[in-house]
Amino acid sequence: MDPTPFTRGLAFAAKEHVGSRVPPECTERFACDTASAAQVPAGVRLEFSGNAGAVDIDATTGTMHPLAAPVPEQYFSVWLSGRLHTRIPAAPGARQKLHIDLPPHGRNKPVTIHLPEGYRPVLHSIEPIGGTIFPLPPRQRWVAYGDSITQGWTTSDPGRAWTAVAAREANLDVINLGFAGAARGELPAASFVSTVPTDVISLAWGTNCWSQIPMDRSYITELMRFFLTVIRSGHPETPIVVLSPLVRPQAESIPNSAGATLEDLRQGIEAAVATFATTENDGRIHLVPGRELISSSHLVDGIHPGDQGHALIGQAMAAALTSAIRSGYGVETAPRVR
Predict the structure, then answer these.
(1) How high is the pLDDT of residue 107?
(2) Over pLDDT 90: what percentage of the chain?
(3) Of the candidates 277, 249, 250, the residue with the CA atom closest to the CA atom of residue 333
(4) Is the confidence at residue 285, as pLDDT, over 70?
(5) How many Cβ atoms from other residues are within 10 Å of residue 257's Cβ?
(6) Which domains are seen in the chain, by residue range?
(7) What is residue 304's predicted lDDT score, i.e. its pLDDT?
(8) Is 24 exposed, middle or buried (0-12, 13-18, 19+ CB in 10 A)?
(9) Residue 310: what are its φ and ψ, rounded to 5°?
């Protein structure tokens, strides 16, 4: 069977799965690091239900991508009704035929298969054994733009990334536009987001503006205004949830080469969101302050959260996304989860 009807997490139609999360005509305008990170199929997955006792998947893997989340091993990760069921090791640079047994108690329940993202597999076919499978019904779509943390750094499994956690809790179909080493509010990315049909959008960027391309508070404040303006050109009514930068101990009080601490940049982003909502009379923009959402103990390397940190972020963002979709009014603070 063609895997296309079962594939989720792509913002555009792609016959060869998956190649890139961004279409070529948009990638040409992206920064090189963003275009490279887009080749990692973060959040791309197979979803189905049915009465089959097993499925066979035919896939060809590539070599390890340097911007994939640094996990010890690459797996096809099988989740059943929102819980990890099994993981099948993937080999790099090989055509691989996988046999995945599905337990009797899992019949007619949702199955999600996360890909070994680092190996960027091409999916050729999926075949049910001893029954039939069907694509899951459509759900509300969520476009999540951000940096490496949105992409899934550094969890033990793609299904434990905060975007996956939030999507399960809020019953959303997430398109992960997290770009490791990038996501500095580039306007070509905002332009792409503005073209993707979606029911809700999240923006989570800023920490790379302290280090990689240093910015000060006034610059990032204005950049966020432009970023929101471009998105609103294509999504005038779509709820937007902005997550300001998470804690990063090294950067909180140390100025970058532009003279700004991460706290300065965080305040600039939060001020931009509040000002945009007021001046544009935009009641569908929502703010989740990131500073206290997790603690430094949840970071595995001083920057990226591990599984527990991602779980906390996912829970908070699920609440914020659900609230934004239901109400859409007012710059609001999502409940903090500790």
Answers:
(1) 84
(2) 88
(3) 277
(4) yes
(5) 10
(6) 4-135 (2.60.120.260), 140-326 (3.40.50.1110)
(7) 98
(8) exposed
(9) -65, -35
